[in-house]
Amino acid sequence: MDGLGVHNGGMDDRHWIQNWLCDMDGVLIDDGSMIEGADRFLERLRSTGRKFLILTNNSLFTPQELRDQLSSMGLEVSESQLWTSALATAQFAHVQRPQGTAFVIGEDSIHVALRDVGYREDSKNPDYVILAETQKYSFDDFATAIRLIERGSRFVATNPEPTGPSPDGSLPGCGAMAAIIERATGVAPYFVGKPNSMMIREAMNVLQAHSDTAVMVGDRMETDILSGIDAGLETILVLSGANGEEDANRFPYRPSRVVGSIADLIDDL
Questions:
Q1: What are phi and psi of 139, to 5 degrees?
Q2: Per-residue DSSP letter, 255
Q3: For residues 217 and 20, is the Cβ–Cβ distance under 8 A?
Q4: Exposure check for the chain: N or C terminus, fewer CB within 10 A?
Q5: Over its length of 269 residues, how does the chain's per-residue pLDDT go in tens digits?
Q6: Distance, CA of 198 to chain centre
Q7: Closest CA to 54 of 34, 256, 6
Q8: HSE-up (13 A, CA, CB side) for residue 106
Q9: Shared domain check, 202 and 175
């Protein structure tokens, strides 16, 4: 599987990689269960002193909720080792307009993340309208968001996925809901989550890491791998999730390496 080549120099000696960014769904877990070897991979990262963050575009849950979910599947991580698109969006807003205001549509995860960076919620004249994943979309909230954007508030959304999974099939995702507001206002949102490399760069700042010693591991070419490449990282595509090996050949960019699953990386650490 390594025969797919590299995008910027190869990974023949992978022991120099000290900072690991790993997508969650399709890499460490799948359909509510741990992917075989994920627990041993994380343990090897810890035992060899590697720094790591688990990244997810899912903005429904707080780090504490995700930690508890992963623990129930046999994966032990701390809240500080989880980086969500909600956290990345709050950090983006904080950097762009410190101590600002926002009208927020989403679950507790985005409200808490914004509060933690010093943001106040405002439904009258906010700096931002911020849209995140939620299963409680409100017509009144959408009407308010549209009017605020028409009056000049800036439109930001956590992640671009149009659908999300459920036991009964697909659910409308943040990307689909953002499209409603965009159609009504003519204003496109700024998506902070992958494939925007902003999320990767912010995660690197959390780790206090440099791109020269970091790698992004993911299962989707169009989000994980693209954002890693754009951020200047080595990238590894795992075939345990969304994309197969043939997908790596149909995109104009290529991962540094392709492996069957996260378990195939344990001996590299």
A1: -60, -45
A2: -
A3: yes
A4: N
A5: 444 444 444 455 555 788 999 999 999 998 889 999 999 999 999 999 999 999 999 999 999 999 999 999 999 999 999 999 999 999 999 999 999 999 999 999 999 999 999 999 999 999 999 999 998 889 999 999 999 999 999 999 999 999 876 677 778 899 999 999 999 999 999 999 999 999 999 999 999 888 888 999 999 999 999 999 999 999 999 998 788 878 788 899 999 999 999 999 998 87
A6: 10
A7: 34
A8: 34
A9: no
The domain that holds 165 is classified in CATH as: 3.40.50.1000
How many Å separate Cα 69 from the centre of its chain? 17
Pairing of strands 128-131, 101-105: parallel
Identify the domain containing residue 166 by its residue range: 86-191
3-state secondary structure (DSSP) of residue 182: helix
Active-site residue set: 23, 25
Cβ atoms of 215 and 19 within 8 Å: the answer is yes
- Based on the fold, state whether residues 26 and 122 are members of the same structural domain: no
Parallel, antiparallel or unpaired: strands 257-259 and 234-238: parallel
pTM score = 0.88
Please indicate, yes or no, whether residues 254 and 233 belong to a single structural domain of this protein. Answer: yes
In a domain, 72, yes or no: no
Query: Which pair of structure tokens corresponds to residue 202?
Result: 């912010």
**97 and 162 fall within a common domain:** yes
Q: Is residue 67 part of a domain?
A: no
> How many domains is the chain partitioned into structurally?
2
Q: Is residue 62 part of a domain?
A: no
